[in-house]
Amino acid sequence: MSFNNLDQLYRQVIMDHYKTPRNKGALEQDSVNIEMNNPTCGDRIQLTLQVEDGIVKDAKFDGEGCSISMASASMMTQAVKGKDVDTALKLSGIFSDMMLGKEYDDSVDLGDIEALQGVSKFPARIKCATLAWKAMEKGVHDEEKS
Amino acid sequence: MNPEIKSYFPILNQEINGHPLVYLDSAATSQKPTPVIEALKEYYESDNSNVHRGVHTLGNRATEKYEGAREKVQQFINARSTQEIVFLRGTTTAINLVAQSYGRANVEEGDEIVITYMEHHSNIIPWQQLAKERGAVLKYIELEEDGTISLENVRAAITDRTKIVSMVYVSNVLGTMNPVKEVAKIAHEHGAVMMVDGAQAAPHLKIDVQDLDCDFFAFSGHKMVGPTGIGVLYGKKHLLEAMEPVEFGGEMIDFVGLYDSTWKELPWKFEGGTPIIAGAVGLAAAINFLQEIGLDEIEKHEHHMAAIAMDKMSAIEGLEIYGPKDPAKRAGIVTFNLKEVHPHDVATVLDMSGIAVRAGHHCAQPLMKWLDVTATARASFYLYNDESDIDRLVEGLRSAKEYFSDVF
Prior knowledge:
The complex is a heterodimer. Chain A has a single domain, classed as Sufe protein. Chain: A (Alpha-Beta Complex). Helix content of chain A is 43%, strand content 18%. Chain A has five helices and three strands. In chain B, a hairpin with a 2-residue loop joins strand 1 (15-16) and strand 2. In chain B, the strands form five sheets. A seven-stranded mixed sheet of chain B has the order 4-10-9-8-7-5-6, with helices on both faces. In chain B, strands 13-14-17-16 form a four-stranded antiparallel sheet, with helices on one face. Chain B has a two-stranded antiparallel sheet with strand order 1-2. The relative contact order of chain B is 0.16.
């Protein structure tokens, strides 16, 4: 059986992140520690961030979930590490637009994240891809409040 | 099973992602046959009106159909009287009604409510809330290793402090058929009432509430080829009579004064608002459809499907099936995981082949914890499925396995 359409979803780079996740684990020194679930399917992510002077100095994630959710978490930590908080949130906004199939700001180099574009064609899987980004957003906002 | 049954379900006659649809998610909701769809259409085209209040002809017709549906349900589960049949939105609403009405009136601090590890969230949370509110203890009956329930463990859990025992008849994850009749007997020996979550049982087995001697029995129309939004609470008359309504206004009232009101008699006192008239009409048509085929025949078909599916699926290397291995102990529900492929990914690959299965925690997170998994995939069979559907599933699973070993 051929699965050409599946290849749009499961791009090589996604499978690479799933199989060898970057930044897996938990930071020992964190300023943000947030757990988030996808209640409809049981995916779970724990995200630890070290935010200092408005910069995401370090980021790690742990959790359980499907290839898309775990690969997306791996890519997200990779993307926001070393960026300032505003840029991290801007990336999150771009990613959200990408998932909703909207026009998105392509002036920013998205790196590996671009590979997740195909997820927008699989509505049931969009929540898998956005879980880590939602956790990051909430974590950063909580940190700003405290 | 008659192969023509499939042709009664128009939705099955379509292609999904370029392949003929194989629908294996009936435990979530079943598909609807033409007679049910026609009954709804006819009701709306010819008889639609509010019930029990119009003097006009349509009002009478709608009332006759609505109350006729109640008689149908009464016969279907062998209740003593139509007064014991309450139409509600579904199983969840029915269990919540019992928890909020019977529970609040009868459970006190230190009393026990006993459920099991294999309950659907809808048969856990109403009791959690009640226990928290009353200072009662919520106890879980342990499962055997194969996902069945032993009467020994039931006896160990139920004590003289137990006021309510609530248990699923057929597990929506493991497919296990539980000995609810025997459990009801044990509950009664301790003065407790027995509630049965029949959501996965009513579509597949002949239900006899008098034989089970349960005190409450809940089920949903949409899982048994009926429409969504209609369900049934059966309760023994003397229990329902003593219970207070939890929804006020509309259909349930008798006399309304400025500061005090009285309720209608059973079963209407629990049916606040405009009743689910079309839903009840559709449910009656669904029951007719199932009875024409025969519930015994359906049950036999499901054991057969479970046996063949388990046999063919276990031949796939790395595929683990949860729940009892003996097909006679389970309904047509097969929950599984494919090694190294997450169930969501399995479900997406199957969907691309036109096969609909469920992936996730199946609204049974405590059971997932007991199984020590975060999610599983589930294929559930109903009367319109046949062996060719199982073959397509097995073929799809093999492709999924292959696909993911390729991309790795």
